[in-house]
Specification:
The complex is a heterodimer of chains A (298) and B (255). Chain A is mainly α. Chain A has eleven helices and no strands. Chain A has one domain (2-212). The longest helix of chain A has 27 residues, at 2-28. The N and C termini of chain A lie far apart (51 Å). Chain B has helices at residues 45-52, 75-79, 100-105, 127-139, 155-168, 185-202, 213-219, 240-252, and strands at 5-12, 22-29, 34-38, 60-65, 85-87, 173-177, 205-209, 223-228, 230-236. In chain B, strands 5-6-7-3-8-9 form a six-stranded mixed β-sheet, with helices on both faces. Chain B has a three-stranded antiparallel β-sheet with strand order 2-1-4, with no helix packed on it. Chain B has a single domain, classed as 3-Layer(aba) Sandwich (Rossmann fold), CATH 3.40.50.300. In chain B, helix 7 runs antiparallel to helix 8 (240-252). Classes of the chains: A mainly alpha (298), B alpha/beta (255).
Amino acid sequence: MQLLAHITAHLIIYSALVLSLSFAVSKVNIWSVGHLGFFGIGSVCAAALLATQPTLYTFPCTVLVAATAGALLSALLGFATLRLKQDFFVILSLAFSEVVLGVCISWKGPAGFNNLARPTVLGISLEDDWVFIGVVLLPFFIAAGAVFVRFSRMRIDRVCALIQANEELAMVLGVSPLYYKVGCFCLASATASVWGALATIYARSTDPNQISIESNLLLFSALLFGGLNSLRGSILGGLLLVVVPSLLEATLSYSPFGGNYAAEFRQLLMGCLLIVVVRWMPKGLVGATTLNHSRGGR
Amino acid sequence: MPPLLRVSGLTFSYDPEAEPLLRGVTFECNTGKIYGLFGNNGSGKTTLFNIICGLTRHTAGQIDYYGGVPSSLSPSNICSFRHGLARTFQVPALVDEISVFDNLTLARRSVGERFCDVLHSASRLDEKFESQIEEYLRAVAIDPLANKAAGSLSYGERRLVSDLMALLTGAQIVLMDEPFSNVDAGRLDALKRLLRKEAREAGKCIVIIEHSPEHLAQDLIDSVFCLRKTLVVNGFEGSPQETLRVINSFTYDEA
């Protein structure tokens, strides 16, 4: 039961994270390859607040601080770098994630924060994992999904499509691509930060390994696998990140290799999947839009 | 009343070391008129359009829109300044994934729509604008294409849709880069009628770049500019025969 709760919680967290990345990539073509940097920001904010003042900083305050930190940092990064060509942004985004990783490690060492207390929500104790999933993770995921679906039906979604199709046309139609891009990037990053905070509250600890370059690339592969611009695609991406490794580990434990090589096999599997997806399934499993190879930012 | 568009002493060079592409270009465009801008390949016609709408920054000179200068010279700011500015591109630009009708609704963004309006549902648009789109589509006989994805259109159809998009913005200054290329004869006449109506009834000032002056001189353009580094013909107005003679002698003779 405990393992099932653990897998469910991680499935929700990673699906939501893939969804926020999907938003940035598919709506305004921002390849936020270092997206987990923002997850890390939220995670560290929550941990620092919970470790220092467990009673003062209650749940909504923690989430709010994480969201604000993510939004402010992404706005700074966005205004400074989104004028650049896409290739440069990809590199800077990865560098940002590495800086966050560096700060986390130098602050609390490779083990991160530990033994944090879970705050209460409206007087409800969140100590039980299933209660945490039902009261916090699931409502947050439903809210994020609803915002994503609603956005896709608004006129702003067409304006975003216009910016992706042709920035010069967008500009002569009175649209400022930079503001839309930074706005969407902020929303995606603030969401990632909130999920970082929720993951930390759930796990009662932080793990700097979660935001390594390797994890960032895994997250991006999961997005491509599930499919861009799709809620279902993001959940499939989350499944790939959470359930497949667990199944692989369980299967390998019966094989002659034992469970020792699970991490290596996981990487091998992801690499092969990525080749298959990019070559033969440009929309991923259930994606709504094709991966945009050629268009650069202005 | 000040002219809708006044360009004075405009100079532009891609390379500061080289001779400028445009030198001292000065002209005025007034309300209710259609202007033809002619010149050889590489004479700087499209560059001039790019400079006017802010996509390219000029080296020297001044451009006044509706007798004023916008606070920031970013293209989005220039194009929504006062009564707006619209332009079409040499290669017709559309959003391929959405329908022709939805593409035309994007024209609403530039003039008169506030940011909070884009947060409304895409299916809810004011009826007046919707019927205006339908009217324009009918005017050039492409109304059966309204629900087709823009990506599936032929080149000539894309051209017509992007021309309509510029007119639907409601901007009073309209710059059209080769609006008739690849358009069939029947629709070409319909488009000319629409442009004349826009100029006469809505008071728009329309500047057209074209390479085949014969049919335009006859029945469309009121005034002619010929560009060869600077304006060698500035606002010539005369009979179709005279206009044609002027265009041919000042643009294509000494290529």
